[in-house]
Amino acid sequence: MQKEVFLESEGDRWLSRNKERCTQRSLPQDDPILLQIIDLSLPASSKVLELGCGAGKRLAWMQENLEFCCSGIDPSAEAIKIAEKSSIQAIQGTADDLPFKTAEFDVVIFGFCLYLCDRSDLFKIASEADRVLKDPGWLVIKDFYATTPSKRPYHHRSGIFTYKMDYRTLFSWHPSYTCLTHQVRHHVDQTYTDDSQEWVALSVMRKNSMGSS
Question: Where do the Methyltransferase domain residues begin and end (predicted)?
Fold first, then answer.
């Protein structure tokens, strides 16, 4: 399974390939996820979980500047070591099995990781995210986007695949979830593009069972 490959080695390799680019990113202006989180105007001490948190730079910024209580999970052991230096509760693992309490978080973020997840785990991933998210709560998803699901070989290792789809549909079928923001942009420079192969979507969803009809 792909998750085992990323837990064993590919997660660390991903970090090594992308470490410089992530380090050079200026926050919050270069981070669309952070800009959406800021726009939510959540109170200090809000609890945030990022799935696919990498080295935790985004979480560290929120913890320092917004006074949130931040946790993260990532398959890379090296990324977790770096994240822990920022006093983040960071755990090596995958999104299909979250070691957190039910209804623990005000916000759950999928930080560009779903495109690498095993398709057989998607139901478990959605169920776990829903379990740990408070009601009401906020769900933020950034990932490759396609109107029709597609599968392509992963450039960096044979036998691994990347998957594009509308990841909102993992949650939007349920009456408790409403998509309030959905932005499709070029995955490199965040501009508008007609090239569907370059699409990345950033979606903000509200979980609120009391508000569902």
Answer: 48-137
Residues whose CB falls within 8 Å of the CB of residue 195, separated by 6 or more in sequence, listed in order: 186
CA distance 94 to 76: 10
Cα–Cα distance for residue pair 170/126, rounded to 1 Å: 6
Q: How many domains does the chain have?
A: 1
Contact 185, 142 (CB under 8 A): no
Q: What is the CATH number of the domain that holds 93?
A: 3.40.50.150
The whole domain housing 175 covers 2-211
The DSSP-derived string for 155-178 is TTSTT-EEEES-TTHHHHTSTTEE
- Tabulate helix, strand, coil % of the chain (nearest 5): 35, 30, 35
- In 30-173 the beta strands, taken as DSSP E runs, fall at 47-51, 69-74, 89-92, 105-111, 133-144, 150-153, 161-164
Q: What is the pLDDT of residues 10-19, one digit of tens each?
A: 999 989 998 7
pLDDT in tens, 104-123: 999 999 999 999 999 999 99
